[in-house]
Amino acid sequence: MQEARNIPISADAAAGQHRMTPQTIKVACSNCNLRELCMPVGLKPAELDRIDEVVATRRKVKRGGTLFRNGEKFASLYAIRTGFFKTCVATEDGRDQVTGFQMAGEIIGLDGIVNDHHTCDAVALEDAEVCVMPFDRIEELSREVNALQHHVHKIMSREIVREHGVMLLLGSMRAEERLAAFLLNLVQRLHARGFSQSELILRMTREEIGSYLGLKLETVSRTFSKFVEEGTVEVKQRHVRIIDTDALKRIVNPQVHH
Amino acid sequence: MQEARNIPISADAAAGQHRMTPQTIKVACSNCNLRELCMPVGLKPAELDRIDEVVATRRKVKRGGTLFRNGEKFASLYAIRTGFFKTCVATEDGRDQVTGFQMAGEIIGLDGIVNDHHTCDAVALEDAEVCVMPFDRIEELSREVNALQHHVHKIMSREIVREHGVMLLLGSMRAEERLAAFLLNLVQRLHARGFSQSELILRMTREEIGSYLGLKLETVSRTFSKFVEEGTVEVKQRHVRIIDTDALKRIVNPQVHH
DNA sequence: CGCCGCATTGACGTTCGTCAAGTCTAGTGG
DNA sequence: CCACTAGACTTGACGAACGTCAATGCGGCG
Protein backbone atom coordinates (compact mmCIF):
# COMPACT_ATOMS: atom_id res chain seq x y z
CA MET A 1 0.00 0.00 0.00
CA GLN A 2 0.97 3.52 -0.73
CA GLU A 3 1.99 5.41 2.38
CA ALA A 4 2.53 9.03 3.26
CA ARG A 5 6.10 10.18 2.94
CA ASN A 6 7.62 12.00 5.83
CA ILE A 7 11.05 13.05 4.76
CA PRO A 8 12.06 16.25 6.55
CA ILE A 9 11.99 18.85 3.82
CA SER A 10 13.57 22.22 3.33
CA ALA A 11 12.82 23.41 -0.16
CA ASP A 12 15.57 25.97 -0.48
CA ALA A 13 18.41 24.15 1.21
CA ALA A 14 18.29 21.25 -1.21
CA ALA A 15 21.24 21.96 -3.51
CA GLY A 16 24.54 20.91 -2.05
CA GLN A 17 23.07 19.69 1.19
CA HIS A 18 24.25 16.35 2.50
CA ARG A 19 21.62 13.70 2.90
CA MET A 20 21.20 12.38 6.40
CA THR A 21 21.15 8.72 5.49
CA PRO A 22 23.43 6.56 7.68
CA GLN A 23 25.90 5.71 4.90
CA THR A 24 25.71 9.14 3.20
CA ILE A 25 25.48 7.42 -0.20
CA LYS A 26 25.87 9.70 -3.17
CA VAL A 27 22.50 9.58 -4.90
CA ALA A 28 23.29 8.83 -8.52
CA CYS A 29 21.16 7.46 -11.33
CA SER A 30 23.24 4.30 -11.21
CA ASN A 31 22.03 3.43 -7.74
CA CYS A 32 18.69 5.23 -7.73
CA ASN A 33 15.83 2.87 -7.08
CA LEU A 34 13.93 4.49 -9.92
CA ARG A 35 16.48 3.59 -12.56
CA GLU A 36 14.13 1.04 -14.10
CA LEU A 37 11.45 3.69 -14.61
CA CYS A 38 13.21 6.99 -15.07
CA MET A 39 15.75 8.49 -17.43
CA PRO A 40 18.21 5.59 -17.44
CA VAL A 41 15.80 2.97 -18.83
CA GLY A 42 17.56 0.61 -21.18
CA LEU A 43 21.02 2.10 -20.84
CA LYS A 44 24.12 -0.02 -20.43
CA PRO A 45 26.21 0.41 -17.25
CA ALA A 46 28.83 2.51 -19.00
CA GLU A 47 26.15 4.81 -20.41
CA LEU A 48 24.50 4.92 -17.03
CA ASP A 49 27.56 6.57 -15.55
CA ARG A 50 27.43 9.22 -18.24
CA ILE A 51 23.82 10.04 -17.48
CA ASP A 52 24.76 10.93 -13.93
CA GLU A 53 26.52 13.89 -15.49
CA VAL A 54 23.26 15.44 -16.62
CA VAL A 55 21.79 15.59 -13.13
CA ALA A 56 23.16 18.90 -11.93
CA THR A 57 21.42 19.25 -8.61
CA ARG A 58 18.38 18.14 -6.73
CA ARG A 59 15.58 20.34 -5.62
CA LYS A 60 12.92 19.94 -3.00
CA VAL A 61 9.46 21.36 -3.45
CA LYS A 62 7.01 21.56 -0.58
CA ARG A 63 3.40 20.56 -0.91
CA GLY A 64 1.60 23.38 -2.68
CA GLY A 65 4.84 24.84 -4.03
CA THR A 66 5.63 25.20 -7.71
CA LEU A 67 8.50 23.59 -9.55
CA PHE A 68 8.02 26.07 -12.38
CA ARG A 69 5.32 28.42 -13.57
CA ASN A 70 3.82 29.52 -16.84
CA GLY A 71 6.05 32.19 -18.35
CA GLU A 72 9.22 31.26 -16.49
CA LYS A 73 12.40 30.74 -18.45
CA PHE A 74 12.98 27.13 -19.42
CA ALA A 75 16.35 25.67 -18.60
CA SER A 76 15.94 22.14 -17.32
CA LEU A 77 13.88 19.02 -17.36
CA TYR A 78 13.06 17.48 -14.01
CA ALA A 79 12.95 13.83 -13.02
CA ILE A 80 10.70 13.23 -10.06
CA ARG A 81 12.45 11.35 -7.27
CA THR A 82 9.71 11.48 -4.68
CA GLY A 83 6.32 13.13 -4.43
CA PHE A 84 3.49 13.88 -6.73
CA PHE A 85 2.86 16.77 -9.11
CA LYS A 86 0.12 18.22 -11.24
CA THR A 87 0.68 20.33 -14.32
CA CYS A 88 -1.93 22.84 -15.40
CA VAL A 89 -2.55 25.41 -18.09
CA ALA A 90 -4.91 28.38 -17.85
CA THR A 91 -6.97 30.59 -20.10
CA GLU A 92 -6.52 34.33 -19.81
CA ASP A 93 -9.89 34.63 -18.12
CA GLY A 94 -8.92 32.41 -15.24
CA ARG A 95 -10.25 28.96 -16.05
CA ASP A 96 -7.62 26.34 -15.67
CA GLN A 97 -7.14 22.79 -16.77
CA VAL A 98 -5.01 20.12 -15.16
CA THR A 99 -3.08 18.50 -18.02
CA GLY A 100 -1.52 15.68 -16.04
CA PHE A 101 -0.48 14.13 -12.76
CA GLN A 102 3.13 13.01 -12.45
CA MET A 103 4.75 10.63 -10.00
CA ALA A 104 8.19 9.26 -9.17
CA GLY A 105 10.34 8.42 -12.18
CA GLU A 106 8.41 10.62 -14.57
CA ILE A 107 9.87 13.56 -16.47
CA ILE A 108 8.37 17.00 -16.28
CA GLY A 109 9.06 20.25 -18.10
CA LEU A 110 8.95 19.18 -21.76
CA ASP A 111 6.52 21.97 -22.57
CA GLY A 112 9.25 24.56 -22.11
CA ILE A 113 11.52 23.48 -24.94
CA VAL A 114 9.63 24.99 -27.84
CA ASN A 115 9.59 28.64 -26.74
CA ASP A 116 12.35 28.61 -24.15
CA HIS A 117 9.67 29.40 -21.58
CA HIS A 118 7.33 27.18 -19.67
CA THR A 119 3.70 27.26 -20.75
CA CYS A 120 2.18 25.57 -17.72
CA ASP A 121 2.53 25.40 -13.96
CA ALA A 122 3.95 22.38 -12.15
CA VAL A 123 2.61 22.19 -8.60
CA ALA A 124 3.64 19.67 -5.94
CA LEU A 125 0.65 17.88 -4.43
CA GLU A 126 2.85 16.52 -1.66
CA ASP A 127 6.38 17.29 -0.52
CA ALA A 128 8.60 16.30 -3.40
CA GLU A 129 12.15 16.05 -4.62
CA VAL A 130 13.31 16.24 -8.22
CA CYS A 131 16.55 15.79 -10.12
CA VAL A 132 17.37 18.92 -12.10
CA MET A 133 18.67 18.11 -15.59
CA PRO A 134 19.82 21.20 -17.51
CA PHE A 135 18.51 20.73 -21.01
CA ASP A 136 21.62 21.94 -22.82
CA ARG A 137 23.56 19.27 -20.97
CA ILE A 138 20.99 16.66 -22.03
CA GLU A 139 21.36 17.74 -25.65
CA GLU A 140 25.12 17.70 -25.40
CA LEU A 141 25.28 14.25 -23.93
CA SER A 142 22.65 12.78 -26.21
CA ARG A 143 24.89 13.65 -29.17
CA GLU A 144 27.44 11.25 -27.73
CA VAL A 145 25.26 8.56 -26.20
CA ASN A 146 22.88 7.22 -28.83
CA ALA A 147 20.79 5.35 -26.31
CA LEU A 148 20.21 8.55 -24.37
CA GLN A 149 19.27 10.41 -27.51
CA HIS A 150 16.70 7.81 -28.44
CA HIS A 151 15.42 7.67 -24.89
CA VAL A 152 14.78 11.41 -24.83
CA HIS A 153 12.85 11.06 -28.07
CA LYS A 154 10.83 8.25 -26.60
CA ILE A 155 9.96 10.23 -23.49
CA MET A 156 8.60 13.06 -25.62
CA SER A 157 6.76 10.70 -27.91
CA ARG A 158 5.26 8.92 -24.91
CA GLU A 159 3.92 12.22 -23.65
CA ILE A 160 2.33 12.91 -27.03
CA VAL A 161 0.68 9.49 -27.04
CA ARG A 162 -0.50 9.94 -23.45
CA GLU A 163 -2.13 13.21 -24.41
CA HIS A 164 -3.85 11.51 -27.36
CA GLY A 165 -5.41 9.21 -24.79
CA VAL A 166 -6.57 12.14 -22.68
CA MET A 167 -8.07 13.78 -25.75
CA LEU A 168 -9.98 10.58 -26.48
CA LEU A 169 -11.21 10.54 -22.91
CA LEU A 170 -12.24 14.19 -22.91
CA GLY A 171 -13.73 14.08 -26.35
CA SER A 172 -15.80 10.95 -26.32
CA MET A 173 -16.29 9.42 -22.88
CA ARG A 174 -19.00 9.87 -20.29
CA ALA A 175 -18.30 10.73 -16.64
CA GLU A 176 -18.20 7.12 -15.42
CA GLU A 177 -15.88 6.07 -18.20
CA ARG A 178 -13.55 8.96 -17.53
CA LEU A 179 -13.28 8.27 -13.83
CA ALA A 180 -12.86 4.53 -14.34
CA ALA A 181 -10.10 5.14 -16.87
CA PHE A 182 -8.45 7.58 -14.50
CA LEU A 183 -8.45 5.14 -11.58
CA LEU A 184 -7.15 2.28 -13.69
CA ASN A 185 -4.37 4.45 -15.07
CA LEU A 186 -3.33 5.68 -11.62
CA VAL A 187 -3.32 2.27 -10.00
CA GLN A 188 -1.40 0.78 -12.90
CA ARG A 189 1.33 3.39 -12.61
CA LEU A 190 1.48 2.97 -8.85
CA HIS A 191 1.71 -0.78 -9.25
CA ALA A 192 4.71 -0.35 -11.55
CA ARG A 193 6.32 1.46 -8.60
CA GLY A 194 5.71 -1.35 -6.18
CA PHE A 195 2.43 -0.20 -4.66
CA SER A 196 -0.79 -2.15 -4.44
CA GLN A 197 -2.86 -3.04 -7.50
CA SER A 198 -6.07 -2.39 -5.64
CA GLU A 199 -5.50 0.31 -3.10
CA LEU A 200 -4.40 3.91 -3.52
CA ILE A 201 -4.41 7.26 -1.83
CA LEU A 202 -5.44 10.13 -4.05
CA ARG A 203 -2.99 12.98 -3.76
CA MET A 204 -5.36 15.44 -5.43
CA THR A 205 -8.73 16.96 -4.59
CA ARG A 206 -12.01 16.16 -6.32
CA GLU A 207 -11.74 19.50 -8.02
CA GLU A 208 -8.32 18.63 -9.49
CA ILE A 209 -9.57 15.26 -10.66
CA GLY A 210 -12.54 17.03 -12.20
CA SER A 211 -10.35 19.57 -13.95
CA TYR A 212 -8.22 16.81 -15.42
CA LEU A 213 -11.27 14.84 -16.55
CA GLY A 214 -13.29 17.80 -17.80
CA LEU A 215 -15.91 17.39 -15.06
CA LYS A 216 -17.08 19.44 -12.10
CA LEU A 217 -16.10 18.29 -8.64
CA GLU A 218 -19.70 17.39 -7.78
CA THR A 219 -19.86 15.06 -10.76
CA VAL A 220 -16.62 13.40 -9.68
CA SER A 221 -18.02 12.93 -6.20
CA ARG A 222 -21.33 11.56 -7.46
CA THR A 223 -19.56 9.17 -9.80
CA PHE A 224 -17.41 7.88 -6.95
CA SER A 225 -20.60 7.34 -4.95
CA LYS A 226 -22.13 5.43 -7.84
CA PHE A 227 -19.12 3.12 -8.03
CA VAL A 228 -19.44 2.55 -4.29
CA GLU A 229 -23.16 1.71 -4.58
CA GLU A 230 -22.36 -0.78 -7.32
CA GLY A 231 -19.70 -2.38 -5.15
CA THR A 232 -16.92 -1.60 -7.60
CA VAL A 233 -14.77 0.44 -5.22
CA GLU A 234 -14.62 1.52 -1.61
CA VAL A 235 -13.98 5.21 -1.03
CA LYS A 236 -13.19 6.92 2.24
CA GLN A 237 -12.15 10.46 1.45
CA ARG A 238 -8.93 10.12 -0.54
CA HIS A 239 -8.42 6.49 0.24
CA VAL A 240 -9.67 4.29 -2.58
CA ARG A 241 -9.81 0.51 -2.68
CA ILE A 242 -10.68 -1.12 -5.97
CA ILE A 243 -12.91 -4.14 -5.35
CA ASP A 244 -13.67 -5.13 -8.92
CA THR A 245 -11.02 -4.14 -11.44
CA ASP A 246 -12.81 -5.94 -14.25
CA ALA A 247 -15.96 -3.93 -13.62
CA LEU A 248 -13.92 -0.75 -14.07
CA LYS A 249 -12.42 -2.12 -17.26
CA ARG A 250 -15.88 -2.96 -18.53
CA ILE A 251 -17.00 0.59 -17.87
CA VAL A 252 -14.11 2.02 -19.90
CA ASN A 253 -14.50 -0.51 -22.64
CA PRO A 254 -18.12 -1.56 -22.86
CA GLN A 255 -18.09 -4.11 -25.69
CA VAL A 256 -17.46 -7.28 -23.73
CA HIS A 257 -20.39 -8.27 -21.52
CA HIS A 258 -18.44 -10.49 -19.18
CA MET B 1 -7.70 32.80 -50.74
CA GLN B 2 -7.21 29.13 -50.37
CA GLU B 3 -7.80 27.23 -53.57
CA ALA B 4 -8.29 23.64 -54.53
CA ARG B 5 -5.15 21.88 -55.61
CA ASN B 6 -5.21 19.93 -58.81
CA ILE B 7 -1.85 18.30 -59.15
CA PRO B 8 -2.17 15.04 -61.08
CA ILE B 9 -1.61 12.39 -58.46
CA SER B 10 -0.55 8.79 -58.54
CA ALA B 11 -0.11 7.63 -54.99
CA ASP B 12 2.08 4.61 -55.62
CA ALA B 13 4.33 5.91 -58.35
CA ALA B 14 5.64 8.74 -56.25
CA ALA B 15 9.11 7.51 -55.32
CA GLY B 16 11.66 8.09 -58.02
CA GLN B 17 9.21 9.68 -60.40
CA HIS B 18 10.29 12.83 -62.17
CA ARG B 19 8.22 15.92 -61.57
CA MET B 20 6.71 17.47 -64.65
CA THR B 21 7.71 21.04 -63.90
CA PRO B 22 9.31 22.86 -66.84
CA GLN B 23 12.79 23.13 -65.36
CA THR B 24 12.65 19.74 -63.61
CA ILE B 25 14.11 21.32 -60.47
CA LYS B 26 15.25 18.89 -57.83
CA VAL B 27 12.89 19.50 -54.93
CA ALA B 28 15.17 19.94 -51.93
CA CYS B 29 14.61 21.53 -48.55
CA SER B 30 16.95 24.31 -49.57
CA ASN B 31 14.62 25.50 -52.30
CA CYS B 32 11.30 24.27 -50.94
CA ASN B 33 8.85 27.09 -50.46
CA LEU B 34 7.99 25.68 -47.06
CA ARG B 35 11.48 26.04 -45.67
CA GLU B 36 10.38 28.89 -43.39
CA LEU B 37 7.73 26.68 -41.79
CA CYS B 38 8.95 23.13 -41.99
CA MET B 39 11.94 21.13 -40.81
CA PRO B 40 14.67 23.60 -41.85
CA VAL B 41 13.47 26.51 -39.69
CA GLY B 42 16.37 28.46 -38.29
CA LEU B 43 19.11 26.45 -39.93
CA LYS B 44 22.10 28.07 -41.60
CA PRO B 45 22.64 27.43 -45.33
CA ALA B 46 25.37 24.87 -44.71
CA GLU B 47 23.15 22.98 -42.29
CA LEU B 48 20.29 23.28 -44.72
CA ASP B 49 22.20 21.22 -47.25
CA ARG B 50 22.72 18.52 -44.65
CA ILE B 51 19.02 18.31 -43.90
CA ASP B 52 18.31 17.42 -47.51
CA GLU B 53 20.03 14.17 -46.68
CA VAL B 54 17.28 13.11 -44.32
CA VAL B 55 14.54 13.32 -46.94
CA ALA B 56 14.75 9.89 -48.47
CA THR B 57 11.78 9.95 -50.82
CA ARG B 58 8.48 11.61 -51.36
CA ARG B 59 5.16 9.94 -51.21
CA LYS B 60 1.78 10.88 -52.56
CA VAL B 61 -1.42 10.03 -50.75
CA LYS B 62 -4.79 10.31 -52.40
CA ARG B 63 -7.75 11.89 -50.69
CA GLY B 64 -9.14 9.32 -48.27
CA GLY B 65 -5.92 7.30 -48.27
CA THR B 66 -3.80 6.68 -45.20
CA LEU B 67 -0.21 7.74 -44.69
CA PHE B 68 0.06 5.27 -41.82
CA ARG B 69 -2.28 3.35 -39.59
CA ASN B 70 -2.52 2.40 -35.95
CA GLY B 71 -0.33 -0.65 -35.36
CA GLU B 72 1.96 -0.20 -38.36
CA LYS B 73 5.69 -0.29 -37.84
CA PHE B 74 7.18 3.15 -37.29
CA ALA B 75 10.14 4.06 -39.44
CA SER B 76 9.84 7.67 -40.57
CA LEU B 77 8.51 11.06 -39.80
CA TYR B 78 6.68 12.85 -42.59
CA ALA B 79 6.80 16.50 -43.57
CA ILE B 80 3.67 17.57 -45.42
CA ARG B 81 4.45 19.26 -48.72
CA THR B 82 0.93 19.67 -50.01
CA GLY B 83 -2.48 18.60 -48.84
CA PHE B 84 -4.27 18.24 -45.58
CA PHE B 85 -4.36 15.40 -43.05
CA LYS B 86 -6.23 14.34 -39.98
CA THR B 87 -4.84 12.04 -37.31
CA CYS B 88 -7.18 9.95 -35.20
CA VAL B 89 -7.09 7.43 -32.40
CA ALA B 90 -9.78 4.89 -31.58
CA THR B 91 -11.11 2.96 -28.60
CA GLU B 92 -11.43 -0.80 -28.89
CA ASP B 93 -15.18 -0.48 -29.09
CA GLY B 94 -15.08 1.65 -32.20
CA ARG B 95 -15.43 5.24 -31.05
CA ASP B 96 -12.77 7.41 -32.55
CA GLN B 97 -11.33 10.80 -31.86
CA VAL B 98 -9.62 13.15 -34.27
CA THR B 99 -6.46 14.31 -32.47
CA GLY B 100 -5.38 16.92 -34.99
CA PHE B 101 -5.49 18.41 -38.46
CA GLN B 102 -2.17 18.92 -40.22
CA MET B 103 -1.29 21.11 -43.19
CA ALA B 104 1.71 21.94 -45.35
CA GLY B 105 4.98 22.29 -43.46
CA GLU B 106 3.82 20.34 -40.43
CA ILE B 107 5.43 17.14 -39.20
CA ILE B 108 3.44 14.00 -38.66
CA GLY B 109 4.24 10.61 -37.16
CA LEU B 110 5.79 11.56 -33.80
CA ASP B 111 3.44 9.18 -31.99
CA GLY B 112 5.29 6.19 -33.42
CA ILE B 113 8.65 6.77 -31.77
CA VAL B 114 7.87 5.49 -28.30
CA ASN B 115 6.79 1.96 -29.18
CA ASP B 116 8.24 1.63 -32.65
CA HIS B 117 4.68 1.38 -33.92
CA HIS B 118 2.17 4.03 -34.81
CA THR B 119 -0.68 4.50 -32.39
CA CYS B 120 -2.98 6.52 -34.61
CA ASP B 121 -4.15 6.76 -38.22
CA ALA B 122 -3.09 9.57 -40.53
CA VAL B 123 -5.67 10.12 -43.27
CA ALA B 124 -5.39 12.52 -46.20
CA LEU B 125 -8.40 14.85 -46.46
CA GLU B 126 -7.29 15.92 -49.90
CA ASP B 127 -4.70 14.65 -52.34
CA ALA B 128 -1.39 15.14 -50.60
CA GLU B 129 2.35 14.77 -50.90
CA VAL B 130 4.79 14.25 -48.04
CA CYS B 131 8.56 14.09 -47.60
CA VAL B 132 9.58 10.80 -46.02
CA MET B 133 12.27 11.26 -43.36
CA PRO B 134 13.58 7.96 -41.95
CA PHE B 135 13.86 8.48 -38.23
CA ASP B 136 17.18 6.74 -37.76
CA ARG B 137 18.64 9.11 -40.30
CA ILE B 138 17.17 12.07 -38.40
CA GLU B 139 18.76 10.82 -35.21
CA GLU B 140 22.08 10.25 -36.93
CA LEU B 141 22.20 13.69 -38.46
CA SER B 142 20.99 15.48 -35.36
CA ARG B 143 24.02 14.14 -33.50
CA GLU B 144 26.15 16.14 -35.91
CA VAL B 145 24.01 19.20 -36.54
CA ASN B 146 23.13 20.81 -33.22
CA ALA B 147 20.55 23.10 -34.76
CA LEU B 148 18.72 20.11 -36.22
CA GLN B 149 18.82 18.31 -32.90
CA HIS B 150 17.30 21.25 -31.13
CA HIS B 151 14.75 21.73 -33.87
CA VAL B 152 13.54 18.16 -33.54
CA HIS B 153 13.14 18.69 -29.83
CA LYS B 154 11.19 21.86 -30.47
CA ILE B 155 8.85 20.15 -32.91
CA MET B 156 8.01 17.51 -30.33
CA SER B 157 7.63 20.07 -27.57
CA ARG B 158 5.38 22.17 -29.79
CA GLU B 159 3.12 19.17 -30.30
CA ILE B 160 2.92 18.62 -26.55
CA VAL B 161 2.00 22.27 -26.01
CA ARG B 162 -0.58 22.15 -28.80
CA GLU B 163 -2.20 19.16 -27.16
CA HIS B 164 -2.29 21.01 -23.85
CA GLY B 165 -4.36 23.61 -25.64
CA VAL B 166 -6.72 20.99 -27.01
CA MET B 167 -7.12 19.52 -23.54
CA LEU B 168 -8.02 22.96 -22.23
CA LEU B 169 -10.55 23.32 -25.01
CA LEU B 170 -12.08 19.87 -24.49
CA GLY B 171 -12.04 20.11 -20.73
CA SER B 172 -13.40 23.54 -20.05
CA MET B 173 -14.97 25.23 -23.05
CA ARG B 174 -18.53 25.30 -24.34
CA ALA B 175 -19.48 24.51 -27.91
CA GLU B 176 -19.28 28.09 -29.19
CA GLU B 177 -15.91 28.65 -27.59
CA ARG B 178 -14.55 25.44 -29.06
CA LEU B 179 -15.66 26.22 -32.57
CA ALA B 180 -14.47 29.82 -32.37
CA ALA B 181 -11.06 28.69 -31.12
CA PHE B 182 -10.93 26.10 -33.89
CA LEU B 183 -11.68 28.61 -36.64
CA LEU B 184 -9.19 31.15 -35.30
CA ASN B 185 -6.49 28.51 -35.08
CA LEU B 186 -7.13 27.25 -38.61
CA VAL B 187 -7.19 30.67 -40.21
CA GLN B 188 -4.06 31.73 -38.36
CA ARG B 189 -2.14 28.71 -39.63
CA LEU B 190 -3.44 29.24 -43.15
CA HIS B 191 -2.46 32.89 -42.99
CA ALA B 192 1.09 31.87 -42.05
CA ARG B 193 1.08 29.96 -45.34
CA GLY B 194 0.04 32.92 -47.41
CA PHE B 195 -3.72 32.40 -47.47
CA SER B 196 -6.41 34.85 -46.44
CA GLN B 197 -6.91 35.93 -42.84
CA SER B 198 -10.65 35.90 -43.24
CA GLU B 199 -11.59 33.25 -45.73
CA LEU B 200 -11.03 29.52 -45.67
CA ILE B 201 -12.25 26.28 -47.12
CA LEU B 202 -12.76 23.51 -44.62
CA ARG B 203 -11.14 20.31 -45.77
CA MET B 204 -13.01 18.20 -43.22
CA THR B 205 -16.63 17.28 -42.61
CA ARG B 206 -18.78 18.55 -39.73
CA GLU B 207 -18.41 15.14 -38.18
CA GLU B 208 -14.61 15.36 -38.23
CA ILE B 209 -14.71 18.85 -36.74
CA GLY B 210 -17.07 17.52 -34.09
CA SER B 211 -14.82 14.60 -33.30
CA TYR B 212 -11.87 16.92 -32.87
CA LEU B 213 -13.85 19.32 -30.67
CA GLY B 214 -15.66 16.68 -28.63
CA LEU B 215 -19.04 17.59 -30.12
CA LYS B 216 -21.61 15.89 -32.31
CA LEU B 217 -21.93 16.99 -35.92
CA GLU B 218 -25.37 18.51 -35.27
CA THR B 219 -23.93 20.71 -32.55
CA VAL B 220 -21.18 21.87 -34.88
CA SER B 221 -23.75 22.69 -37.52
CA ARG B 222 -26.00 24.55 -35.08
CA THR B 223 -23.07 26.52 -33.72
CA PHE B 224 -22.06 27.55 -37.23
CA SER B 225 -25.65 28.68 -37.80
CA LYS B 226 -25.56 30.68 -34.60
CA PHE B 227 -22.39 32.47 -35.69
CA VAL B 228 -24.08 33.25 -39.00
CA GLU B 229 -27.17 34.67 -37.27
CA GLU B 230 -24.95 36.89 -35.15
CA GLY B 231 -23.16 38.13 -38.26
CA THR B 232 -19.79 36.80 -37.09
CA VAL B 233 -19.13 34.55 -40.07
CA GLU B 234 -20.62 33.60 -43.40
CA VAL B 235 -20.88 29.89 -44.09
CA LYS B 236 -21.73 28.22 -47.35
CA GLN B 237 -21.05 24.52 -46.93
CA ARG B 238 -17.31 24.24 -46.44
CA HIS B 239 -16.56 27.77 -47.46
CA VAL B 240 -16.21 30.04 -44.43
CA ARG B 241 -15.68 33.78 -44.39
CA ILE B 242 -14.89 35.38 -41.07
CA ILE B 243 -16.65 38.74 -40.84
CA ASP B 244 -15.75 39.71 -37.28
CA THR B 245 -12.54 38.19 -35.99
CA ASP B 246 -12.73 40.15 -32.75
CA ALA B 247 -16.15 38.69 -32.01
CA LEU B 248 -14.66 35.21 -32.33
CA LYS B 249 -11.81 36.18 -30.05
CA ARG B 250 -14.30 37.53 -27.54
CA ILE B 251 -16.16 34.23 -27.59
CA VAL B 252 -13.00 32.29 -26.84
CA ASN B 253 -11.83 34.74 -24.24
CA PRO B 254 -14.84 36.35 -22.66
CA GLN B 255 -13.32 38.76 -20.14
CA VAL B 256 -13.06 41.88 -22.26
CA HIS B 257 -16.44 43.35 -23.14
CA HIS B 258 -15.32 45.42 -26.09
C1' DC C 1 -12.79 22.66 20.98
C1' DG C 2 -13.77 25.06 17.01
C1' DC C 3 -12.52 26.31 12.59
C1' DC C 4 -11.66 25.55 7.70
C1' DG C 5 -11.13 23.14 3.60
C1' DC C 6 -12.78 19.26 1.33
C1' DA C 7 -16.41 16.15 0.24
C1' DT C 8 -21.22 14.61 -0.22
C1' DT C 9 -25.93 15.05 -1.50
C1' DG C 10 -30.23 17.10 -3.27
C1' DA C 11 -33.07 20.09 -6.31
C1' DC C 12 -33.12 22.33 -10.39
C1' DG C 13 -31.45 24.33 -14.94
C1' DT C 14 -28.66 24.33 -19.15
C1' DT C 15 -26.22 22.43 -22.69
C1' DC C 16 -25.58 19.23 -25.66
C1' DG C 17 -26.84 14.54 -27.61
C1' DT C 18 -30.35 11.76 -29.96
C1' DC C 19 -33.60 10.86 -33.34
C1' DA C 20 -35.85 12.12 -37.31
C1' DA C 21 -37.16 14.72 -41.28
C1' DG C 22 -35.86 17.40 -44.89
C1' DT C 23 -32.41 20.21 -48.00
C1' DC C 24 -28.45 21.05 -50.67
C1' DT C 25 -24.59 19.80 -53.64
C1' DA C 26 -21.60 17.26 -56.47
C1' DG C 27 -21.07 13.45 -59.12
C1' DT C 28 -23.02 9.83 -62.35
C1' DG C 29 -25.25 8.01 -65.99
C1' DG C 30 -28.96 8.07 -69.27
C1' DC D 1 -28.64 18.45 -70.56
C1' DC D 2 -31.20 16.75 -67.04
C1' DA D 3 -32.72 13.25 -63.75
C1' DC D 4 -31.09 10.52 -60.06
C1' DT D 5 -28.48 9.37 -56.12
C1' DA D 6 -25.50 9.44 -52.19
C1' DG D 7 -23.27 11.91 -48.92
C1' DA D 8 -23.02 15.96 -46.37
C1' DC D 9 -25.44 19.42 -44.06
C1' DT D 10 -29.36 21.78 -41.63
C1' DT D 11 -33.11 22.15 -38.52
C1' DG D 12 -36.58 20.83 -35.06
C1' DA D 13 -38.41 18.32 -30.98
C1' DC D 14 -37.22 15.96 -27.13
C1' DG D 15 -34.45 13.82 -23.45
C1' DA D 16 -30.28 12.64 -20.83
C1' DA D 17 -26.12 13.98 -18.75
C1' DC D 18 -23.87 17.08 -16.49
C1' DG D 19 -23.43 21.82 -14.32
C1' DT D 20 -25.08 25.08 -10.80
C1' DC D 21 -26.47 26.43 -6.42
C1' DA D 22 -27.08 25.45 -1.80
C1' DA D 23 -27.19 22.86 2.46
C1' DT D 24 -24.83 19.68 5.22
C1' DG D 25 -21.24 16.40 6.84
C1' DC D 26 -16.66 15.07 7.87
C1' DG D 27 -11.84 15.25 9.36
C1' DG D 28 -7.53 17.38 10.38
C1' DC D 29 -5.07 20.98 12.59
C1' DG D 30 -4.09 24.78 15.40
Topology diagram in text:
The structure is a homodimer of 258-residue chains.
Chain A: H1 45-52, E1 57-61, E2 66-68, E3 76-82, E4 84-90, E5 96-103, E6 107-108, E7 121-124, E8 128-134, H2 135-144, H3 146-172, H4 175-192, E9 199-201, H5 206-213, H6 217-229, E10 233-236, E11 239-242, H7 245-252
Antiparallel strand pairs in A: 1-8, 2-7, 3-6, 3-8, 4-5, 4-7, 9-11, 10-11
Chain A binds a DNA duplex (30 and 30 nucleotides) through residues 174-175, 205-207, 215-222, 224-225, 237-238.
Offer a few descriptive terms.
4-stranded antiparallel sheet; 11 strands; 21% strand; globular; alpha+beta; 36% helix; 7 helices; Arc Repressor Mutant, subunit A; 258 residues; disordered N terminus; homodimer; DNA-binding; Jelly Rolls
